[in-house]
Amino acid sequence: MNLIIIIVLSLVMIVMAVTAIIHKKLAVAVIATGVVSLMASVMYLLMAAPDVAMTEAAIGSGLSTIIFFYVLNKIRKAK
Amino acid sequence: MIRNFFIIAILAGLAAVFVSLFWNFGDSEVLTPLATHYATNGAAEVGAPNLVTSIVVTYRGFDTLGEVTILFLVASIVSFFLKREKLQPETTPKRETSEIILTAAKLLVPIVMVLGIYVFINGHLTPGGGFQGGAIIATAFVLLLMANPDFKINHKIIATVESVSGIAFVLIGVFGILLAGGFLDNKVLPLGTFGKIFSAGAIPLIYSFVGLKVGSELSNILSNLQGIQKEEM
Question: What ipTM was reported for this prediction?
């Protein structure tokens, strides 16, 4: 069961990572990186590393996504 | 043509490196001697049920001090470069925050903050600790800033909390040299009963200070980034 979840999660991660690279809209790319972090945190949990999972969920998918959006907003205004 | 050749050559080289890594990857059956020492003696020596915490705070406490220092440097550099000029009055009309976010912020911000405090106070018993708790507290500030863009975090309070907890962290470490086995030794306080909240010596105290420090630093970065959003370029 765990193996199936891990395979599904890694497929989603790969798709999201490729999306983040090739998508035209930067906002979508930022969301995609956030999803990669979220899936990674679930993966850490399945691999019995809850401490790392908490850090990844809070910093990777929470704070860094919001910081990317703040910077994106700033860059748009500068254009 | 030559450029493409170089790209392909570099990719092939990277693939060769990673294939050997991937091929040899697997769960090792036996622990290394150091890991064996931690696994067998960690609970008795440090008195914390969460072995990760006892490694991060006690065995490798100096590394944690380094990480906290790096975070402090990042926060100060961000606030140095994003130094707020005096704000011009807003010219463009602001879009109103949606009702859902306003209500969610009212309900969730206190709960998320309490969760963060719980995570760092219970760092020696359950998964989590100072860094995780601090990051959770900072996400509460994110929600607050999203619901109310004019909200200003009091920089004086943040600076005071940050520096007091940093100094307290180092002072506990120095007390470790004077009263116990070395820098950041947790036996400055009695180890207490295994598994209780007031146990594992100085670990709950150290992790609370780390949590407050990390939380205030990350909130400071966020409020600085929020502050520059209104400026015209």
Answer: 0.82
